[in-house]
Amino acid sequence: MKIWKHTRRDAAMLALSLAQTATTFALAATWDGASWPWRLGGACLLVLMMTYNIIVISHLFTHVPWFESRRLNGLASMLNSLNIGQSVQRYQLFHVRNHHRYNNDRKGPDGKTKDLTSTFLDGEGGEHDGLFHYAFVGAVSTLGTTARALLSATRLWRVGEHEQELIDLAAKDPARREQELHQVRMDRLAHFVGVCIFLALSWRWTLFCYLPAFYLALALVNVQNYFEHFGAAPESRYTDSVSYYGRLYNLLAFNDGYHQEHHLRPQTHWSRMPEVRREHAARLEGAERIISPVPALLGFLHRDRPLLHRRPVVTAPAEEPSDTFSATG
Known about the structure:
Blueprint: H1 11-30, H2 36-63, H3 70-84, H4 88-102, H5 131-150, H6 164-169, H7 174-201, H8 203-227, H9 247-252, H10 259-264, H11 273-279, H12 281-286
Helix pairs in contact: 1-2, 1-3, 2-3, 2-4, 2-8, 3-7, 5-8, 7-8
């Protein structure tokens, strides 16, 4: 029986996920008797693990699930929903069906962006939103959404009627739609049970370490997304994102740096991103686009980044369709 949908190399991400879960519980269990240097180190490790999981592990999973079995993929989604503090299935619906459909678009005539996470959403005068507002105020909003999901125990963690954006992103096919919304519910349940265990192990750790670490991880993820698109021109599929080709980073982060290529072929397995770059080499090399000298999380160090979004908009030629998931599939 075939277990892995694409390659056994995805087992590395499963191992990292399990290691994160075990480490998180260990940090909670040892907090009360630990020294302050140990506590500080543990808090930093927690931020690092959650940030890495959201940016790399869960992100790649939302595009290309690891297993042939839908049940195993559901369990993996629950595992990492605990690890990242939010439903992986909900993440998939917003990220794949919204962000990768509209690709960090500018505001339209109605003054809104279609991409709900666009860096232009709260910007003025055709500019990106400010980094602080996008990263840290945006993290507060995500924190509130997560808190409401945890407290949805009164409806047994079902997706509520008020969650219209989430409902609209679910598949139109009734059977698939039911599966997706059920997975959101199971993810929320897994996170709720995990938080209850955290509180039982150490309520002090949960309040004074886990909660701040979760917030900082959310903010860092927003910094990552910000610099994956800052300065890029969203009018072309070949210039709407920023790539970083450092070998060590892409080895450790499963080719996360190939972000322009990822937007061109979002459902292509991470191991094939260099192939996507070669496949589209002529168009990519012929386009005026941004290649960063640093990973997106350190994008603020790219001081001389060209601001292509400020240049006159030229209507792009017809381009190949992406392989983004359709909500009707």
